[in-house]
Amino acid sequence: MRIRHLAARFLAAILMSLPAAAVAAHPHIWIDTTFDFRFDGDGLTGVRVSWLFDEFNSAEMLFSLDENLDGEISEAEQEQIRQNAFEHLLATDYFLVIFAGSQQLDVAEARDFRADVIDGRLLYEFTVPLRVAWRRMENLVVGSFDTSYFIDFMSVPARERHAGAAGTVLMRNETLRLASEGYGTIPVPAVRVDLN
Amino acid sequence: MRGARLVLLVCLLVIVGAVATAQNPFLPGASQETEAPGESPQIYSGRVPRFLAAWSRSLQSGIARLSRRVTGGEWTAAIGSFLLAVAFGIVHIAGPGHGKVFAVSFFAGRAARPRDGIVYSVVVNLVDSLSAFGLVMLGYVLLRATVPDFRTQGPRILELVSYGVIALFGVAHLVSHIRPHAHDHGHAHDAHERHDEASPRRPPWALALSVGLVPCPVSTVLLVYGLANDALALMAIMVLGVSLGGFLTMSAISLAVIAGRAHLLERLRGKAAHRVSAALEYGASGAIIAVGIAMFAAAW
Prior knowledge:
The complex is a heterodimer.
Chain A: H1 2-22, E1 29-40, E2 43-53, H2 55-65, H3 75-86, E3 96-100, E4 103-104, E5 111-118, E6 121-133, E7 140-144, E8 151-157, E9 161-164, E10 167-179, E11 183-195
Parallel strand pairs in A: 1-8
Antiparallel strand pairs in A: 1-2, 2-6, 3-4, 3-7, 5-6, 7-11, 9-10, 10-11
Chain B: H1 2-21, E1 44-47, H2 50-71, H3 77-94, H4 100-109, H5 114-146, H6 150-178, H7 180-198, H8 205-213, H9 217-228, H10 232-267, H11 270-299
Helix pairs in contact in B: 1-5, 1-6, 2-3, 3-10, 4-10, 4-11, 5-6, 5-8, 5-9, 5-10, 9-10, 10-11
């Protein structure tokens, strides 16, 4: 009887804990994002994204990712991290939202992934290819957003202007308001790209 | 009996560990959990003020900065770090999530004393801290020493173990139900328990336990940071600070709901009071069940 009683309590505790786990939403990971936009003669060719994780989550991630725990990411560890802890994020579009006017653009598979450690904080860098012609370079807005609101991204441009073939490109901060999964509308720091 | 309870506690920690770590999409093994955004139950539909996220970001960064100074030998910085941890806890719990909807629904739906709200908030935040500490000790210290692959495959191992444990207890539950004597006795016991749970003068222990059981990821990462930087004691104090802040916010919310309900019913008399009381009770129970089922379905 005791086993039955304990098992019943145990199962009840598990069932009760699952909904509670699901409601633990609001930001628990903080990432400083930098967007470095890349251009050629025809327009925008991609964006180099940098994610600098907060110190506490960096410690937890490095505990799993830095195999020899030397505080540095070796070439062998780079590939392991890319395969085991980054590649799958394509399913979330790497948490990127890209709008050209009212149209949301697709996010292609990232390339040139690199992981580093800077002052105890984990840094991910990767490039997302894009193709936006100069004539469409109006109201282009790029932001980072986790719809579950588990991650808080703070996004800034790597530089404020670029002298392009069709004119000067201005990059400045803008706030998007995007709907989260169940927690209302979240203000999302983003970067707006305009051809001047 | 005490040994069996200890085993149960360890198993439960493994399961909540699997649930807790699965939330971080950047950990190895999370690839099985990461999906494209989908439909989720709507807990809140308004605008979330940016200052909540901005304050959380600044406060956690401040805790990190001051903690570095403490580990560098400047012990007085621990006071500032602890105060920031308390402030972080206040702001963190005020943001969306952390099961506040269950507390609000519960206290809106039944007569409760202010003491119940305080006890509820203490239990949630204390269990959260203890659960985080148990999880980190079990997952990052014990299993790391005994299972070499745990460090890089932790979430996956926890997940496999947890499903195995659930299956085993499911079998034990089924077997004991098949035995007729145990079945009858069990029903009598369950009825007694239901009677206790229904008492309006009893703090919501089960609800508090279920909300606090899965530790806040912030508590676990603070402790892991402490392990990695030989500052476990310091970070355990920071976790207590965050829990203290969480307690303050959760108490304020619970007390406001308890007082609001009492005030509303006091102003109404006779049938109207009865009707409002019944509506609150059924509405609150319905809300808890609906949100619980919707969340369970979303997490499935």
